[in-house]
Design a protein that fits this description.
mainly beta, 2 domains, 8-stranded antiparallel β-sheet, binds 2-acetamido-2-deoxy-beta-D-glucopyranose, DUF7223
């Protein structure tokens, strides 16, 4: 599958600023911290008054004696080795000053000083003396310093507000090399909402896409059996209902994120996220049932993988997770066997959050779908089945202890509605090949409607008040009619919801055969605007429980299966 090729047209002009430089102290009211990994790049810039930001690294004149590299909030011991620099910490008071920390001394790049005192333990390990000895100055006393990452609790009036600007991307190197002109200092006029990903024909930034592993599943979504006792002329039998989903998913994704706010006031509404994605969804849904009743598999997670995290400590974290969900719901009162293919290709998919009308989109196309349906024709009954294959990317966001998430759902679904009016003497014989089936004898009739749908939705979890739950955006939603036909006599009956909106053949044929309805196949109106997404979104957040309590043994003889539909349908046409 081709990877999407994107680049950042306009992101923060951080290249114009001094990069994260461990030899230059953060003493001038600005401090930058860079994140680099094979899969992600990011930069965080703090800016405020001269006294609001200081530096506990070697460059800032400090030697840290005791610290815990894996802890965030902690007490450290530190000693000044260069009084020309370290005193900057005390400018206007050390408390409430945000300090840069060495990588090996904290899990956090920055913390706020809440307390500083002459430590009772004045010992300095011999190995740490070198720095201040070299300077020959008077030895300062060892300080105890309490560091906190509860920035929201800091007293901002002591040093004034600090602005934090974060930008990050799955595309290594992109941010620093694609500076936007005309925006000289991030602390001034930089417009965080101008981030955009735009398509580009060159292949130079291919490496920015995270290719999700190609995954093939053969998953049993539902499997229940009931031992049915003899009832009237129905002999005892072991009834089963099995729903399987075979699927292959390939996908690739890239993203860029920006965040700009006042450090002490977490504000998720100042976050922008742009994601580009390609995906190829193939699947075959199989249902095999000789029980009646309803079933709900609930949302089954087939596969889940965490993608590289943009980790700026407690100030900002973005952790995407890729999960493939599947779900099926069915209500059956006849014996049924069915296979329906799900086939979709998504290329150049683009999500922009917060939602803005035009920027999101992509090319979403259905492929050829094989459908097969067999049912028992001499029972009157309905069957309906909805199944979903739903790859999802969840961008989990954590800002100063508040968490939220922005999700992207690619919801491919298949839906079957079957309404049968059986007759004891009736039967439906399979058509010779392709799409046709013939009703023979008298009585057996019905309608079958098979469709697939694709809904691409994005939205935010509700956790943080600032994020409106209704900020959902549907990038794409469409239902594709694969097969829709009525057969047999008596299909004009209207007592079923399922066939209410069915196409009616213009001619009432005596002894009709399915082929006479062929003309109706594609002439039915497609279900435009069918709101798959609403259902999908609702379903997603309110996790449905697996439920098979509704299954019962049939009380009438279900009879043998006959093929009703066997066809390959190109939903795109
Ligand atoms: C860090 O700053 C020093 C002094 O300005 C400079 O010589 C050095 O090249 C800088 N290093 C990086 C990696 O920018
Ligand atoms: C902040 O520090 C810079 C560089 O050290 C200095 O030029 C500037 O005057 C200082 N500003 C204030 C308000 O102290
Ligand atoms: C360092 O901090 C981590 C996380 O808070 C903690 O589990 C660990 O015990 C600490 N190590 C020491 C030596 O205190
Ligand atoms: C810490 O000790 C030094 C002398 O070593 C003293 O001058 C200073 O006032 C003390 N600071 C505090 C906060 O007690
Ligand atoms: C910090 O910014 C907030 C929001 O703009 C403002 O309400 C507050 O007064 C500012 N605090 C200081 C100390 O400037
Ligand atoms: C916050 O800092 C200001 C200025 O230093 C001070 O007047 C005020 O009392 C402090 N507030 C608290 C709650 O400590
Ligand atoms: C930022 O850019 C967006 C889109 O380009 C624009 O609508 C908005 O007015 C800009 N905001 C500022 C503060 O310039
Ligand atoms: C369904 O479950 C039964 C027993 O639990 C098992 O023997 C059978 O293989 C399962 N069928 C499928 C298709 O998973
Ligand atoms: C149903 O299955 C059970 C266990 O596999 C078996 O003992 C029983 O004979 C079966 N009943 C029928 C009617 O096939
Ligand atoms: C999934 O891929 C495997 C191997 O490429 C193939 O054999 C299988 O038919 C595919 N399944 C579907 C449902 O496309
Ligand atoms: C359907 O047609 C294909 C090719 O025309 C043939 O290979 C296949 O055997 C036929 N199937 C049936 C059930 O007749
Ligand atoms: C329909 O049911 C009757 C008896 O109820 C049975 O004889 C007949 O074989 C059934 N037809 C099919 C196709 O199973």
């Amino acid at each position: 599958m081709a990877l999407p090729v994107f680049f950042l047209a306009a992101l923060f002009p951080l290249a114009a600023l001094a990069a994260n430089n461990w030899t230059v102290p953060c003493h001038a009211g600005e401090c930058q911290w860079d994140l680099k990994s094979n899969h992600a790049t990011g930069t965080m810039l703090l800016s405020g008054s001269n006294s609001s930001i200081s530096d506990l690294t070697t460059a800032g004149g400090w030697t840290i004696l005791d610290c815990n590299a894996t802890a965030a909030d902690q007490e450290i011991r530190a000693v000044c080795h260069d009084s020309s620099k370290c005193d900057h910490l005390n400018l206007n008071g050390a408390e409430n000053t945000v300090v840069r920390l060495p990588n090996d001394c904290s899990s956090e790049p920055f913390a706020v000083v809440t307390r500083i005192w002459n430590h009772t333990d004045q010992s300095i390990p011999a190995g740490r003396r070198s720095l201040w000895k070299r300077r020959g100055g008077l030895q300062r006393s060892v300080q105890g310093i309490t560091l906190s990452t509860n920035f929201a609790a800091a007293n901002a009036s002591q040093h004034g507000n600090i602005t934090v600007v974060v930008s990050g991307s799955s595309m290594p190197g992109v941010i620093l090399s694609q500076a936007a002109p005309g925006c000289e200092a991030a602390s001034q006029a930089c417009n965080t909402s101008s981030v955009s990903l735009s398509s580009r024909s060159s292949a130079t930034t291919k490496s920015g896409s995270i290719s999700l592993p190609d995954i093939a599943f053969d998953t049993n979504l539902f499997n229940a059996s009931i031992s049915c006792p003899q009832s009237g002329d129905v002999p005892a039998f072991n009834g089963t209902i099995v729903v399987d989903l075979q699927s292959n998913v390939t996908a690739s994704l890239n993203y860029a994120v920006t965040y700009k706010t006042i450090l002490f006031i977490p504000d998720l509404s100042s976050l922008t996220l742009t994601a580009g994605f390609d995906a190829d969804l193939r699947g075959t849904l199989s249902l095999d049932a000789d029980l009646t009743g309803g079933l709900t598999t609930g949302e089954v997670s087939l596969y889940s993988v965490g993608l590289p995290v943009l980790d700026f400590g407690s100030i900002f974290k973005l952790g995407p997770t890729f999960t493939i969900f599947a779900a099926a719901d069915a209500v059956l009162d006849t014996k049924l066997e069915m296979d329906v293919d799900l086939a979709y290709t998504i290329s150049g998919g683009q999500l922009v959050f917060p939602p803005s009308s035009s920027a999101s989109g992509g090319l979403f196309s259905p492929g050829t779908s094989n459908i097969k349906l067999s049912a028992s024709p001499n029972v009157t009954g309905n069957a309906s089945l909805v199944a979903h294959l739903k790859p999802t990317v969840d961008f989990g966001v954590s800002i100063l202890g508040h968490t939220s998430g922005i999700y992207l759902d690619l919801d491919a679904s298949a839906e079957l509605d079957l309404a049968l009016t059986g007759a004891a003497t009736g039967s439906v014989s399979a058509g010779t090949n392709g799409t046709s089936a013939e009703a023979t004898g008298t009585g057996a009739s019905g309608c079958v409607d098979i469709s697939t749908g694709l809904a691409v939705d994005a939205g935010a979890d509700v956790d943080l008040i600032i994020f409106k739950a209704g900020d959902d955006v549907t990038l794409f939603s469409k239902k594709f009619e694969l097969f829709s036909k009525c057969f047999g006599v008596g299909n004009e009956r209207r007592d079923s919801d399922l066939d209410r909106d069915y196409y009616r053949p213009r001619r009432a044929l005596p002894g009709p055969s399915l082929s006479s309805f062929e003309e109706g196949w594609r002439t039915r109106k497609r279900h435009e605007g069918h709101n798959l997404s609403e259902a999908a979104a609702g379903r997603r957040r309110v996790a449905q429980k697996r439920d098979d309590g509704g299954l019962t043994c049939p009380t009438v003889l279900l009879g043998a299966l006959v093929s009703i539909v066997e066809a390959a349908v190109d939903a795109a046409t």
